[in-house]
Write a sequence for this structure.
């Protein structure tokens, strides 16, 4: 079963790599794809696009690790059994930072965490993940479609999922020290044990597919819109919020660091082009006021 889990998540990574690579066809983007090993057990595969014509940068990471001592970020889970015989954690994480400020940044993550028995089989498990959207120049119809598509596929599994998962996303992806959300939300779930192990893997596959389909639709609608220098400047400064969240608030980043993961893969989620500016222009302030009114509201459908 562990091999089946690994292969299914590698297929998720492969599908997203193929879709993102097609956006840089015939460009001079710097593309990296490498495998890595973790000293404590397991490893992963990291795909990165940098300095392309569509992406400033994006990362599609796969990791499958195992060990004997649970990272502190996993201890918050209500475990029914002790991890006396070790644990395993397998997942795919995606981050996209397009060049065009009319195309939102996006994030997706699917993961499964297992407690092993004495035979090193999975005795207890839970799944987590979700996806969210961070626009800089926001379009109402994109946000509504993003949420409508999420609700549609979740309702086929459980009619309560969307209500809970979308609110989880609103509560999680925010900067409490600024009292603002990172974007317009999406879905977020953790410690989900409702489904069988096989159905849990199928559910993660469906989450990833719906993310990719929903995001590609927005990309194709917005990627050819011309943008101004002011709009690009605004995007670069606002990307600083992404850095703040990932380094200060994100449990996934903390888990990667606590589990002694590969640092460059963990931090590949950070934008490679961003700005920090103490004094901002009046144009920036007007654009920020408009954006905050847009993202600091519930887009749940």
């Amino acid at each position: 079963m562990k091999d089946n889990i690994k292969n299914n998540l590698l297929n998720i990574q492969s599908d997203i790599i193929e879709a993102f690579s097609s956006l840089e066809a015939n460009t001079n983007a710097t593309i990296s794809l490498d495998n890595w090993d973790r000293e404590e057990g397991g490893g992963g595969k990291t795909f990165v696009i940098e300095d392309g014509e569509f992406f400033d940068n994006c990362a599609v990471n796969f990791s499958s690790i195992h060990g004997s001592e649970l990272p502190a970020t996993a201890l918050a889970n209500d475990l029914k059994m002790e991890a006396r015989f070790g644990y395993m954690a397998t997942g795919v994480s995606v981050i996209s930072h397009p060049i065009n400020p009319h195309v939102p940044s996006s994030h997706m993550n699917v993961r499964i965490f297992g407690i092993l028995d004495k035979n090193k089989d999975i005795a207890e498990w839970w799944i987590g993940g979700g996806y969210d959207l961070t626009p800089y120049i926001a379009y109402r119809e994109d946000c509504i479609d993003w949420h409508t598509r999420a609700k549609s596929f979740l309702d086929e599994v459980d009619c309560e999922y969307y209500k809970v998962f979308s609110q989880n996303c609103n509560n999680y992806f925010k900067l409490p020290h600024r009292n603002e959300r990172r974007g317009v939300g999406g879905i977020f779930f953790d410690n989900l044990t409702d489904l069988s192990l096989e159905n849990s893997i199928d559910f993660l596959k469906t989450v990833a597919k719906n993310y990719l389909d929903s995001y590609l639709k927005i990309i194709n609608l917005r990627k050819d819109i011309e943008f101004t220098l002011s709009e690009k400047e605004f995007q670069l400064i606002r990307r600083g919020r992404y850095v703040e969240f990932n380094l200060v608030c994100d449990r996934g980043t903390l888990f990667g660091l606590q589990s002694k993961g590969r640092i460059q893969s963990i931090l590949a989620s950070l934008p490679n082009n961003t700005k920090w500016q103490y004094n901002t222009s009046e144009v920036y302030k007007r654009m920020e006021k408009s954006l905050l009114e847009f993202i600091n509201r519930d887009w749940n459908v």
Summary: The longest helix spans residues 197-222. The beta strands are 30-37, 42-50, 55-67, 87-98, 105-116, 122-134, 174-175, 180-181, 185-192. The domain at 2-295 is CATH 3.40.1500.10 (oxygen-dependent coproporphyrinogen oxidase).
